Amino acid sequence: MTKKQPEEPQQPTLYTPAEVAMFFRVDPKTVTRWARTGTLHPITLPSGHRRYHAEEIHKLLQAGDAHADVPDPEPEPSPRARAVLHSVVRTYFNGDAIAAIKTLRTDLK
């Protein structure tokens, strides 16, 4: 009978800031900012380098996937569209934006 070797504890998988940035498609400086603000919880190595737990990163990625089927909010109008809208309000409603909104609400019903 051979003695069973005691298993060494499994080391956690750690990612570098560049790897985390690649997962989230952001700049590595953004990952550093997330660590500074407490969004991510890095491990600081004796060398001073930061590493991120794979488990935490994968949970955040999965949470992001859960919101993938939620439609994006309405896009912001372009500066040109804003200028046209301001011109319409100024010309047709004597600059009264409330009157323009009321008119639009009654037209949409």
Describe the structure.
There is one protein chain. With 109 residues, the protein is mainly alpha-helical. The protein has two domains: 14-62, Multidrug-efflux Transporter Regulator, Chain: A, Domain 2 (Orthogonal Bundle); 80-108, no CATH class. 52% of the residues lie in helices and 7% in strands. It contains five helices and three strands. The protein has helices at residues 17-24, 28-37, 54-66, 79-92, 97-108; strands at residues 14-15, 43-44, 50-53. Strands 1-3-2 form a three-stranded antiparallel beta sheet. β2 and β3 (50-53) form a beta hairpin. α1 packs across α2 (28-37). The longest helix is centred in the C-terminal third of the chain and has 14 residues, at 79-92. The protein is rod-shaped and about 90 Å long. The termini are far apart. The model has no long low-confidence stretch (mean pLDDT 82).
The averaged pLDDT comes out at 82
Count of helical stretches: 5
Distance between the termini: 84 Å
Percent range for β-strand residues: 5-15%
What structural category characterises the helix and strand content? mainly alpha
> How would you sum up the global shape?
rod-shaped
H/E series: EHHEEHHH
- Record field, number of beta strands: 3
Q: Could you name the CATH class of the largest domain?
A: Mainly Alpha
Count the domains.
2
Domain Helix-turn-helix: 14-63
Organism: Actinomadura rayongensis
Protein name: Helix-turn-helix domain-containing protein
Pfam families: HTH_17
